[in-house]
Design a protein that fits this description.
Helix content is about 35%, strand content about 30%. The chain is of the alpha/beta class. A 6-stranded mixed beta sheet has the order 6-7-8-3-9-10, with helices on both faces. A 4-stranded antiparallel beta sheet has the order 2-1-4-5.
């Protein structure tokens, strides 16, 4: 379980509060600069936040790094290619179990990249490597910042299946994305941020109702086969 109370950080975020039971996913939405990435970085313990962030009753900022990364972990929006590690070497730095690494490579269908340098990978390949790292670490809370941004359309079903499998195993998943169609397919709850403040936290109907307030006008919100689509008025 993830519990966030009165979360704030240096005027970028203010008074964000929500609760996520085990086996639930939250789509975090809002315009650029609304505080979405800052929210994930606070929950992951990377920023010295005000308020409280608890995972299974434990305050995240009170944990040493070694324990924290096993409880809550983060796929950043901007992925680092520092160093000259191969994909396999990079994964083994985080997860010393070679069998876990092999399983993660197979799951994301990137076993063929294991001997490649991180510096040689495309953006989409790098996202899959970092997702494989999370898969191998297997924290209780997964924080995914724009995971679909560099992935081609053929990989999105795999990412959706991954999120749904995590929920079946009782994990908590937070996903930041501008792709409302993808979020509406994989998330059970939605958190809207506007100018660093919480505009709403609720189900799909809440999201659909609040989208115009969140983003402004100029479009129509459509719901087809339990998925939301944005149709620009042009």
């Amino acid at each position: 379980m993830l519990e966030v109370r009165g979360l704030g950080w240096r005027g970028v975020l203010e008074g964000v509060s929500f609760r996520v039971p085990a086996g639930s996913s939250v789509g975090v939405v809002g315009k650029n600069g609304s505080g979405k990435t800052t929210l994930l970085r606070c929950i992951g313990g990377f920023l010295s936040y005000c308020g409280s962030v608890r995972v299974n009753g434990v305050e995240v900022r009170e944990l040493p790094v070694g324990k924290r990364v096993k409880l809550v972990n983060y796929l950043p929006q901007l992925l680092s290619r520092s160093g000259y590690y191969t994909v396999e070497e990079f994964l083994l730095l985080s997860v010393s179990n070679p069998f876990k690494v092999e399983e993660a490579l197979d799951y994301f269908q990137i076993a063929g990249l294991s001997g490649r340098s991180l510096l040689s990978l495309s953006g989409g390949e790098l996202v899959k490597v970092f997702l494989a790292r999370l898969y191998a670490l297997d924290p209780d809370v997964y924080l995914l910042d724009e995971p679909s941004a560099f992935l081609d359309v053929s990989v999105l079903p795999l990412l959706g299946r991954f999120v749904k499998e995590l929920l079946g195993r009782g994990k908590v998943v937070l996903v930041v994305s501008h792709d409302l169609t993808f979020l509406s397919r994989v998330c059970t709850r939605f958190l809207g941020l506007k100018d660093g403040k919480q505009l709403f936290y609720g189900d799909r109907s809440t999201l659909k109702e609040q989208i115009p307030e969140l983003y402004g006008g100029g479009f129509e919100v459509l719901e087809i086969d339990n998925s939301l689509f944005i149709k620009p008025n042009v």
